[in-house]
């Protein structure tokens, strides 16, 4: 499906995984606004500096990025699409070095974590956490820093004139990240939607969550995910975030009617077409 | 309860929130091993460099730190105690500066996030993510760097010769982090336990989770938390992590018997006394 030509806020610079989603799924003319933090990504949209924001929300190994759900809830934005990106971590450094020359690797905590097996086998490499994946690669090139490596997706080494020392150092090849495209809420309902992300607080009665899941199951819905998330103003009380798949939007509407009756707060964070067939 | 004199791995340096838990709850003679990453905290224990590890697992605003559950599951360690620390973020910098002099603040993503309201009101301050909270404070002191601030808990400014520019800049005063003490598994069962953290994979039948929650409710148990977490080797299949409170350990044993029958994999991540009364 061709995408309209938007200006989109992303986390990270050119060469980051967010940027790879733009390269893979959006038109070549798409403009990006590179943001240092997920908070900036969200508030660039809130403050109308962009028409949409792209944000990683979940990884198939590390799980949900809960702080990003918090941002999404608080900013009252809507998930309008989702994209799955296969994550490959290539160990990259200045040209003409071998793995033995590398003494340090600088990357994001999640990237380092996803390559745990590889680094366990190469204990001479010291792991240094950074807040970004592509930025350490860019700085290695800029400062011509030897013995230091970064972990970047396919296509990024070339962007900075670096060399791939070892491709695909991730623990498993089934490592995908799910990204969501955020927009401001509109009145229009996506009639093709077959997935929803919901956020709700339950009335405090024992067994309430069990009853709700039973209802979903009776409606033939597939609960693909559930997270409890704290309620900021009620310490150690939890709200829930669920992803549900359904066949037709009328089933979603039935569920919303049930939720309206059994929950304190109900907020649809997105009604969209699944990125999976 | 006085703690035995252990060597404990913590994330962060002296002055960090982990270190504050040690100062508040453990004996003065307790030795710490400061680790740069949570991964190091866990593997210091796995590799017998320490007798226990202290790890943040959840915050009352930001929610669960899911990657830390992943580490805990993979390393096969046990939660033996939990501690709640009230989180105060003091904005600290070199002495004799006012808020107007501060142009940048460097801290961990979660700390910056928890002070979002304050920084929205002071847009002249640029937020820079770091992998640590106490380390930027230490470096400000070491490099005598003006115009730069850090966010640290009570008692840390004094440690580094910095001054509190503005105390308690967090959004809400009900901001607590839950820390868990990890040890290697033993055969001994804590008979005072009234809380368990469980990890299980459900057999894939619609409505299974609903049935399980109904069982917990019938056993009079209080489900305090539920998280779905990916199964690393089965892409986009989910396991669940739950915290349950119970009155007597025999109820926990009943639940385990039910889980043994209805789950594929069941792992007790901890059986311990709640840090709450």
From TrEMBL, chains A, B:
Q: What is this protein's gene name?
A: pheA
Give the Pfam families listed for this entry: PDT (PF00800)
Keyword entries, A-Z: Amino-acid biosynthesis, Aromatic amino acid biosynthesis, Lyase, Phenylalanine biosynthesis
Source species of the chain? Psychroflexus planctonicus
Give all residue intervals belonging to the ACT domain: 197-273
Instruction: Give the EC number(s) under which this enzyme is classified.
Output: 4.2.1.51
Question: Which InterPro entries does this entry report, sorted A to Z?
Answer: ACT-like_dom_sf (IPR045865), ACT_dom (IPR002912), Preph_deHydtase (IPR001086), Preph_deHydtase_CS (IPR018528)
Q: Which reaction does it catalyse?
A: prephenate + H(+) = 3-phenylpyruvate + CO2 + H2O
Which parts of the sequence belong to the Prephenate dehydratase domain? 7-184
Name of the protein in question: prephenate dehydratase
Which principal EC class is assigned to this enzyme?
Answer: lyase
Task: Write out the pathway annotation from the protein's UniProt entry.
Answer: Amino-acid biosynthesis; L-phenylalanine biosynthesis; phenylpyruvate from prephenate: step 1/1
User: At the top level of its lineage, which domain of life is listed?
Assistant: Bacteria
